[in-house]
Structure to design on (374 residues):
C-alpha cells in the first residue's frame, strides 16, 4: 500500500496523475477510464505511458504456440477448450507456427531427440517471447529424473523459462494461474524505458527489440 | 484351443524344437521354441487351418540378467504374442537367445505388424532380426549407442551436449 491509497484520488485528473506515477500499474488507468466513462465523458482519447500501453497489449493477447509433447498437452488442450477457456485471458489463439507465437508452453516430456527441435522452435519465435515449463518433466525431468536415459533434466538448461508450472500433469487451473503470473510479469516490464534509457548493449530479456 | 493343446500340436510337428509343457517359469503360460525352428513354427501357426493365427499382437523382449539360475541369467528372450480372430484363441511363443549374439529370424514377412515391433525390440534390447526389411532404430536417435533396456546398460554422461544428471 502506498501513499496514494490513504488519500484516494477523487477527480479524473487526480486519477490520471496517480496513474502516471507508476506506468507499470494498469489498474489505476482502468479506474481512471471507468470513472470518466461513468461521468459520461468521452473515452475516445486516452493518455497512457507507452510502456503501460505496450505491456497491456502484450499481456492481453498472448498467442501460444500449438505445441504438445506428452500428457501435459492434454491438460493444455483442456485449458484451451470451452470448459476452462483460455480465450478469457486473451491467450486462446494457439498458433501453428512459431513465427506468430509469443508464448511457448512446453507441455510434456522433452527427450534428447526432441530438445534440438524445441530449441529451434524457440529461436524461430519473434521477440518478445516467453516460455512456460509445464509439468514436472520440463521443470526438472520429473519421474524420469533418476533413471530416464533419454529425458532432458529440465528445459531451463537450454532455453530461458519465465514461469514454472509444477504438477504431473498440472491441473488446468494451475496453467491458468501460470498464465496470470506471466501476465503480471509482462506488466512489470518497461520496454520503452529499457530500449531508450539504457546505455548501449544493456538490453534485457523481455525488453523491446 | 488352449495353449496346452497348441503346444501338443506343435510338439507333434516340430518335435524337440518345442520346449516342455508346462514352462518352467510361473505366470502367464508360454511355449518355448528353438531359434532355428522359430520362423517355421510362426508360419505353421499362421497357415494351419486349425490354428489360423491371423493377428500379431506384440513382439516383446525380456532380459533375464539378474534372475535366479545361472543359465537363465545369460539369455534374452524374444516373445511373440499371437491371436486368432478366426478361432478366438491365443498363443505366446518365447525364443531364448544368448545375450552376446542375439539374432533371430524376422517374422515381418508373415505379419507386417512385426516390422515396427521388431524394430523396437532391436532398439531397446539389441536383438537383431535377420531378414527384416528395414531394421533401424525406431524410437531413439540413429546415432545412439547401446540398447537402454538391457539390464547392463550404462547411461552415457551426455548426449550431444545434453547432460544426463
Amino acid at each position: 500500500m502506498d501513499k496514494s491509497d490513504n488519500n484516494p484520488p477523487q477527480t479524473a485528473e487526480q486519477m490520471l496523475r496517480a496513474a502516471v506515477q507508476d506506468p507499470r500499474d494498469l489498474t489505476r488507468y482502468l479506474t481512471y477510464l471507468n470513472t470518466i466513462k461513468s461521468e459520461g465523458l468521452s473515452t475516445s482519447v486516452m493518455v497512457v505511458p507507452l510502456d503501460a500501453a505496450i505491456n497491456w497489449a502484450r499481456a492481453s493477447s498472448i498467442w501460444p504456440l500449438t505445441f504438445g509433447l506428452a500428457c501435459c498437452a492434454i491438460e493444455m488442450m483442456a485449458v484451451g477448450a470451452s470448459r476452462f477457456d483460455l480465450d478469457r485471458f486473451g491467450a486462446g489463439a494457439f498458433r501453428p507456427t512459431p513465427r506468430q507465437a509469443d508464448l511457448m508452453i512446453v507441455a510434456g516430456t522433452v527427450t534428447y531427440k526432441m530438445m534440438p527441435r524445441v530449441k529451434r522452435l524457440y529461436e524461430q519465435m519473434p521477440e518478445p517471447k516467453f516460455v512456460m515449463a509445464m509439468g514436472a518433466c520440463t521443470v526438472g525431468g520429473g519421474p524420469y529424473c533418476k533413471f530416464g536415459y533419454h529425458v532432458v533434466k529440465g528445459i531451463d538448461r537450454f532455453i530461458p523459462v519465465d514461469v514454472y508450472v509444477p504438477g504431473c500433469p498440472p491441473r488446468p487451473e494451475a496453467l491458468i494461474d501460470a498464465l496470470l503470473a506471466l501476465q503480471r510479469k509482462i506488466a512489470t516490464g518497461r520496454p520503452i524505458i529499457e530500449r531508450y534509457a539504457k546505455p548501449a548493449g544493456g538490453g534485457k530479456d523481455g525488453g523491446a527489440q | 484351443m488352449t495353449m496346452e493343446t497348441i503346444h501338443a500340436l506343435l510338439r507333434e510337428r516340430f518335435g524337440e524344437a518345442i520346449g516342455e509343457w508346462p514352462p518352467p517359469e510361473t505366470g502367464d503360460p508360454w511355449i518355448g521354441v528353438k531359434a532355428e525352428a522359430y520362423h517355421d513354427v510362426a508360419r505353421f501357426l499362421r497357415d494351419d487351418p486349425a490354428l489360423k493365427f491371423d493377428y500379431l499382437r506384440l513382439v516383446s523382449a525380456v532380459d533375464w540378467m539378474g534372475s535366479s539360475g545361472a543359465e537363465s541369467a545369460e539369455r534374452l528372450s524374444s516373445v511373440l504374442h499371437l491371436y486368432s480372430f478366426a478361432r478366438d484363441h491365443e498363443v505366446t511363443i518365447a525364443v531364448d537367445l544368448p545375450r552376446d549374439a542375439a539374432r533371430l529370424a524376422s517374422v515381418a514377412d508373415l505379419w507386417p505388424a512385426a516390422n515396427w515391433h521388431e524394430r523396437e525390440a532391436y532398439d531397446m534390447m539389441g536383438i537383431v532380426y535377420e531378414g527384416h526389411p528395414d531394421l533401424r532404430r525406431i524410437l531413439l536417435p540413429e546415432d545412439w549407442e547401446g540398447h537402454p533396456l538391457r539390464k547392463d546398460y550404462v547411461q552415457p554422461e551426455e548426449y550431444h551436449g545434453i547432460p544426463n544428471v
User: Anything to note?
Assistant: The mean pLDDT of chain A is 83. Residues 72-187 of chain A form a domain with the Rossmann fold fold (CATH 3.40.50.12280). The CA atoms of residues 44 and 82 of chain A lie 33 Å apart. The radius of gyration of chain A is 20 Å.
